[in-house]
Design a protein that fits this description.
- The protein has 2 domains: 294 residues, Rossmann fold; 88 residues, formyl-coa transferase, domain 3 (2-Layer Sandwich).
- It is of the alpha/beta class.
- The strands form 5 sheets. The chain has a 6-stranded parallel beta sheet, sandwiched between helices.
- It is elongated.
- Helix content is 37%, strand content 15%.
- This is CoA transferase.
- InterPro entries: CoA-transferase_III_domain (IPR050483), CoA-Trfase_fam_III (IPR003673), CoA-Trfase_III_dom3_sf (IPR044855), CoA-Trfase_III_dom_1_sf (IPR023606).
């Protein structure tokens, strides 16, 4: 690009304002906690994009930086695919459901960061941004001059969050990390599955999701500190660290006892009865969390004496787990699931059915809370956060690849001819 039209000289700071595409009057009138915050989301797949989506839901302007040819890896992770309605008679690219789960509330700028012009664009955007999210391998962005140190030299107030498999330091820092592998290395799989079966991963990439949540907490804390110091931060977040941190009670069971926990399948290592049971026509889950609840369960099952003696306390029930569970199972198997659930509900005994996902989205409570919705014709799952009774879910759908390239670059001060040249040379889409 011509020096006179360099984005660094063309009002890049304008990117800190504005709202997301398709913003409705209702959303515009609502208080959005991160209004005025600009995020460059240079991450891919799930953990980083999950953080970016949450920040976007909370009101930040999130500019998703993608490769102009292939975009986010998850754009190709189908089927299933969602085919949008034609726009002005032109077919809209199909989008993988996986991509759609983590990229709401963003603008897509498709730019080749391996090119000198692309690097100048990113640096100009970073100069006016508040947060950068990235999940490149350690040192991967340094070759382009887009690493945390380089960007914070341009903008000392910038908060950069680097998400990697193993962190910025340590003997594994150079390795790539994926959720499944981290669940294995971080101990979660050793806790999941039947005692006599193969260790199992979870049905959702939970380490990635939790990492996205920790990333959100980290960047918001860094923004809060910046109010006092004026300085940004480099947040170093590792999937392995997150997995170890979220072992929760199982981690402390190990550290306190010195013994590796065994797998309990659908049971709980510390609470009894707290597991799945078979009924005549299906399964239910009992989650009896205290002695009073157990006493009510014992009465329901026709054995109030269970609330005394060996089974009176949770410690006793854990010690006599095998006998007690067999007794409960023998009674529940003789009745229908919905009967037992209704009786538990009436007595304040925590219990629930094991739903398939279609059943989840048909559940009256889930429907009442509006957890499944469509945004511009695209299926979405709502943000669970509510502020003063209003959902925090943004009202604009995940973007098509490069959908907002012209808008973002124009706001940076680039001319139509500059944008056309960059597109012609394959630097943007």
């Amino acid at each position: 690009m011509h020096q006179a039209d360099s984005p660094a000289e063309a009002g890049a700071g304008n990117t800190t304002g504005g709202s997301g595409p398709g913003k409705s009057a209702q959303a515009a009138s609502a208080a959005r906690p991160l209004e005025g915050v600009t995020v460059l989301d240079m991450s891919r797949v799930l953990a980083g994009p999950w953080c970016g989506q949450l920040l976007g839901d909370l009101g930040a302007r999130v500019i998703k930086i993608e490769h102009p040819g292939r975009g986010d890896d998850t754009r190709g992770w189908g089927p299933p695919w969602h085919q949008g309605e034609p726009i002005d008679g032109d077919a809209v690219e199909r989008q993988a459901a996986y991509y759609l789960c983590a990229n709401r509330a963003k603008q897509s700028l498709a730019v080749d960061i391996a090119s000198a012009d692309g690097q100048r664009l990113i640096k100009a955007l970073a100069k006016g941004a508040d947060i950068v999210l990235e999940n490149f391998k350690v040192g991967g962005l340094a070759r382009y001059g887009l690493d945390a140190a380089s960007l914070r030299e341009i903008n000392p107030a910038l908060v950069v969050c680097s998400i990697t498999g193993f962190g910025q330091t340590g003997p594994y820092a150079h390795r790539a990390g994926y959720d499944f592998m981290i669940q294995a290395m971080g101990g979660l799989m050793s806790l999941t599955g039947d005692a006599d079966g193969m260790p199992m991963k979870t049905g959702v990439a939970i380490t990635d999701v939790m990492t996205g949540l920790y990333a959100t907490v980290g960047v918001l804390a860094a923004l809060h500190r910046r109010r006092e110091t004026g300085e940004g931060s480099h947040v170093d977040l590792a999937l392995l660290d997150v997995q170890v941190a979220t072992l929760a009670n199982q981690a402390l069971n190990t550290l306190v006892s010195g013994v590796a926990p065994q797998r309990f399948g659908n049971a709980h290592p510390n609470i009894v009865p707290y597991q799945a049971f078979a009924c005549r026509d299906g399964h239910l889950v009992l989650t009896v969390g205290n002695d009073a609840q157990f006493a009510r369960l014992a009465e329901l099952l026709g054995h109030p004496e269970w609330a005394e003696g060996d089974y009176a306390t949770n410690e006793g029930r854990v010690a006599h787990r095998q006998d007690l569970v067999a007794l409960i199972q023998g009674i529940l198997s003789g009745g229908e699931r919905d009967h037992w659930l209704a009786e538990c509900e009436a007595r304040g005994i925590p219990a629930g059915p094991i739903h398939t996902l279609p059943e989840v989205f048909a559940d009256p409570q889930v429907r009442h809370r509006g957890m499944a919705r469509e945004i511009d014709g695209v299926p979405q799952v709502a943000n669970p956060l509510r502020f003063d009774g209003a959902s925090a879910t943004a009202d604009f759908a995940p973007p098509r690849l490069g959908e907002h390239s012209d808008r973002v670059l124009t706001e940076m001060g680039l001319s139509a001819s500059d944008i056309e040249r960059l597109r012609r040379e394959g630097i943007i889409r």
